[in-house]
Amino acid sequence: MAFTTPGIDFIAQKALFPALLNYGVLYLSLYLSRLSIPQWGLILAAVLPIPGCTFVGMAYRKWRHQQQAEKLGARLAPVIDSRSIGNYKFLIKLNEAWKRGYPGDGLWGYTEEVGTIFNCNVVFEDSIYTLEPEHVKRVLATDFDNFPKGERHIEALSGFLGSGVFSSDGDMWRFHRTMARPFFSRNRVTDLELFDRHIQSAISLMRQRMSAGYAIDFQDLMQRITVDSASEFLFGTSVDSLHITVENLPQPYDHPDYHSSVEAFSLHPSNRISEAFLRAQMVAAQRDKAGWVWPLLEIFGDRAKKEMKLVNEFIDPIVETAVRRNAEKVKSNVGEQAKKKDIRDDESFLDHLASQTSDKTIVRDQALNLLLAGRDTIAATSTFLFYSLSQHPEVSTRLRQEVIDKVGPAKRPTYEDIKGMKYLRAVINGTQVFYGAIMLHTSEDLWGPDAKEFDPDRWIDDRKQRYIDNPFMFMPFNAGPRICLGQQLAYNELSLIVVRFIQAFSSFALDEAALPPEARVPTEWSHFNGHGRKGKERFRPKVLLTMSSEGGMWLKAKSIEDN
């Protein structure tokens, strides 16, 4: 049955329907037995068993897990207990850390208290955290079938990602995976001309902003490169978010037009889709973090609906065109032949998907899933990479020398050039460890006492063997059957971005004054001496479905042309 909001639907399924069923059974029983009780008593008798049965079910599940563990000679993961109903105090603490803290805040302390695996059990639902590579290997690879995404996770993400590859299990996941795999063949992911066009547009905008003397939101610029590249690569049609004037870019906080530019930025056509995409992602992340009771936070409305309407207004016409074009080919028997062949060189991913199914929703969902993967992950890594270069000029100098030696000051690198640039790959890998979205990537037990340091050499010297021997301690592209199909594409695009910006600019510097005050690093962070980089960080990492920088990443750069 369809209801108006996720919250009303949730209450109806969990409470209203069971209560009505209980009421009907009780009423019929009383009628047949010719007994009578007050109406209020009948209603109370219908409602009270619901929470009781819920708690009995939870207690039984806990007992069953304990029995199964004993049979296996194992023990259950220790439970974090905040001495509150449903562990709600822990959830509040964790939510505050997500909003205002540093990634890992609210969790690192428990690794010292109870070990590297623990159960948060939020709102009566087990939530297991582990920092052990062997556990991760079991979940992602060797026992993959026993660890699906699960109904709760899929429901939380489906309002944003539909039934795409990141929010599905079983046959639907295998379908999406099978359809996408041939599109990431070597000849496609090594064709760098498409990406280079968008990168050059971004460099032009950055040069204009630098000539005006103000910082640029490098994160926004990277997101424009990746969304334009990904949309053209996947759909055959670019979003063209880079086809704007420099005045339409976000303005730094120290710019006199900052306040008036904020509203103008959100209203500009090239920004509306990206902003809606980001807000929908925030809703999906908040739903996932809230656990199985997330619909109760949306009793008065579906928070993703408005944002997805804007996103779908962009992508639906493209999907409909692809489906219609394939239908026309099928009529001429060309489409049926295409299903039996590999993807043609002139065929976009959307065209290929439309040739396999005429279901527009499935086509759209998969397209959005891959757009998220192609936009946010690469944009985040390149943003943090150049932030790291701004803080470590010695790394920037060494990287520049490799670029000049291997490629030259202006030439576009080839795939073979990129393969031969070992320090470039080390810088990329180091950035992904440095800002890994999971605690595993910053564990000192695994990475050593310098885990919080930006040290590309760890991927070149003798330490490299340690990571090669234990691949499940470094997983920027996931692992096992769900490993990222676009891994090589991501490395190639990242490498091209780095090379082109290194060729265009001689130095990069962080401009903290350009950040809005609410996004700046809190003063108390400088006194922090615990896990991770919180004590020395100059920006605020924010974790949604992917990682980003709160308020943007504002950099200044010196153009090579000015040297």
Automatic annotation (TrEMBL):
Keywords of the record: Heme, Iron, Membrane, Metal-binding, Monooxygenase, Oxidoreductase, Transmembrane, Transmembrane helix
Named cofactor requirement(s): heme
PANTHER family: P450, PUTATIVE (EUROFUNG)-RELATED
Transmembrane segments: 15-33, 40-60
Pfam families: p450
Family designation: Belongs to the cytochrome P450 family.
Binding-site residues, heme: C484
Name used for this protein in its record: Cytochrome P450
Lineage: superkingdom: Eukaryota
A GO term, aspect molecular function: heme binding
InterPro entries tied to this protein: Cyt_P450, Cyt_P450_CS, Cyt_P450_E_CYP52_fungi, Cyt_P450_E_grp-I, Cyt_P450_sf
Organism the protein comes from: Candolleomyces eurysporus
